[in-house]
Amino acid sequence: MQATGASVPRVGIVMGSDSDWPKIQAAAAALAEFGVPYEVRVMSAHRTPEVVGQYARSARQRGLQVIIAAAGGAAHLAGVVAAHTTLPVIGLPVPTPDLGGLDSLLSTVQMPGDVPVASMAVGMGGPRNAGLFAVQILATADEGLQARLAQFKQQLAAKIAASDARLQEQRAADDAAAR
Ligand code: RP5
User: Fold this and answer.
1) What pTM does this model have?
2) For ligand 1, is residue 17 a contact (CB within 6 Å)?
């Protein structure tokens, strides 16, 4: 799937199974939010190892600049992708029913020296952060994205300030009612 029209994808999202997709869609949503063209593929380090190697080896030449690799359980996908490319690889451990994703996390994050994978959190903000981290990597050489990220940080700060103001108002009202 190529999600943003005719634009050449800058980010590749790969996952070990289509069962991962509902759990990691927030990564794609974050890329879309910043207007970053991306592609999404299913490929498995264990079930289709040749496809993974070919994808990773050809990624830079096809214009990809970052790869997000999501997998669950014995989650070797990000590491195998990293073995075959010099592009930055973001590992996204997918929650699992058996071990809650600790299996995925450790399989993704515990890379040996010389083959880095930037691992995100299991669940919670992990998928969204994978997308945002890819945007941040691209922004190191893209002033437009850098400006959008700066605006994003300002919006975050404004949102938290508004939450704090609401909480203070609520507490003051509760105190007044209790008197
Ligand atoms: C991993 O095994 C996938 O990334 C997925 O998280 C998990 C289960 O895959 P399915 O059995 O649903 O295909 O390779």
Assistant:
1) 0.93
2) yes
Give residue 138 CA to ligand 1 midpoint distance, Å: 29
Distances (CA, A) of 6 to 37, 39, 74, 89, 93: 9, 11, 35, 24, 30
Distance 121 CA to ligand 1 centre (A): 18
Per-residue CA distances from 40 to 37, 54, 71, 96, 134 (Å): 10, 15, 13, 21, 14
* Tokens 């790869």 sit on residue: 67
Q: What is the pLDDT of residues 26-55, one digit of tens each?
A: 999 999 999 999 999 999 999 999 999 999
**Closest-CA residue to 87 (of 128, 132, 117, 110):** 117
User: How many helices and strands (H and E) does the chain possess?
Assistant: 6, 5
23 CA distance to ligand 1 middle (Å): 12
Q: What is the pLDDT of residues 149-163, one digit of tens each?
A: 999 999 999 999 999
Q: β-strand 89-94 against 66-72: which pairing, if any?
A: parallel
Positive or negative torsion for Cα 129, 135, 140, 144: negative
Tokens 């050449």 sit at which residue?
Answer: 8
Strands (E), the chain: 11-15, 38-42, 66-72, 89-94, 118-119
